[in-house]
Amino acid sequence: MTSARYDVIIIGTGPAGLGAAFHLSDLNPSLSILMIDREKICSGGLLNDCKQNYTYPTGFAEENWTRAEAERLLPLVEEKLQPTIKEKQNLEIYRKRAQRIGVTLLDIRQAHVGTDRSRLLIDRMMSELTARGVTIVLGKEVTDVFEHESGAGITIGEAERVYGNNVIVAPGRKGFSFLQQIMERLKIAYVDNHVDIGVRIETTLENYPIVRDYYDPKFFFPDGVRTFCTNSGHARVIIEKYQDFSLVNGHALSEEQTANNLVNFALLKTIGLKDPVRSGQQMAVYLGRLAYEIGGGKPLMQRVGDFRMGKRSNAETFNDDLYSAFRPTCPVTAGDLGLAVPAKIMRHIWGAMKKLDTIIPGILHPSTIMYYPEIKMYANKPAFNDEHFRVCEHIFMVGDGAGTSRGITGAWASGIRAAEGIVGLRQTTQREP
């Protein structure tokens, strides 16, 4: 570390952390700021795919945001990320089809960078922050956050301590467990009773042609199911590895790359838990481990044709398919989702797929693949002390892992709100006699 003490320490270099760092240096360039991340490159949704939504409520946790507050900050997010907004067409046709069967299609301003170009965006932002005097430390893991007599600080590894006036904790969804440990040790009240569980669909472009008109269509179905994170062009399904299980996700390359004519997107169901099962994270870990065991150390996949017939998929299903030469882009285990997905969740997701096939005929083609599990663990909801996401006098928690957002732009805006709180606190302190 280049300093024994900083005005602000930011844990995490994803969108929430970046939003805080930029806004802090905008409001007060003289602040000493440390950003630290266990990853060796800026992490979060910016690195993989980098899809951005600029219309409320997409990407925002509505219990923490009003439309007016989100719309106040979204232009500031856009100013820094400098997106190229995707054009849309023919939405009214899809909307009318959806409305007839009780489905809602949102009209969202969107941008997409692509995994192959996301590092260029990250490098630009990190270089700008460095030029502003922000200290950036990558590849070092924060293991604790603590309060001291005049502020807050962090522990790196086993014993190294760095002190600050304020700490912003923004580790993203993968930092879910870390956040819970900090909240429990500091006795910060929180709830963790929601989790999003679902499948990732992979099919051909001709089976889901809406992406030619609307890059990432946002459908909301009955029973709490929605589409999420649609990828097309050169699109692939990927594995996200956790400590003792794996999940699936999707991403796409930029328009500069040759298309593979595939589309993937998630269908997620939001689960609200009540006693005695109160932890969304515990449920997510249990389901992830179950699928991991059934899949022999990998997630599962099944063709729609096999699922409809009530039989498992196998290697031959994917290599000698009679309906399509389309091969899976993710090396997971062919099997039976019915053995791993809770029945109620699968029933609601399958109902949403049938409705979606009514709106866009083709998604239930026998060759379509369902990958499982895709789980979003961003249901930590700390008891915030104010609108700036303060949890202790000098500690703030923001981003997807802290339940203030559900995507890049909402996370960035959350960082801005924390920055405003810190600068306001600093000004108040300086005015006191």
From TrEMBL:
Coiled-coil regions listed: none
SUPFAM superfamilies the record matches: FAD/NAD(P)-binding domain
Gene3D superfamilies reported for this sequence:
FAD/NAD(P)-binding domain
Which InterPro entries does the UniProt entry name for this protein? FAD-binding_protein, FAD/NAD-bd_sf
Q: Which domain of life is it from?
A: Bacteria
PANTHER family the UniProt entry points to: DEHYDROGENASE-RELATED (PTHR43106:SF1)
Q: What is this protein called?
A: Pyridine nucleotide-disulfide oxidoreductase
Q: Which organism is it from?
A: Pelotalea chapellei
Species lineage? Bacteria, Pseudomonadati, Thermodesulfobacteriota, Desulfuromonadia, Geobacterales
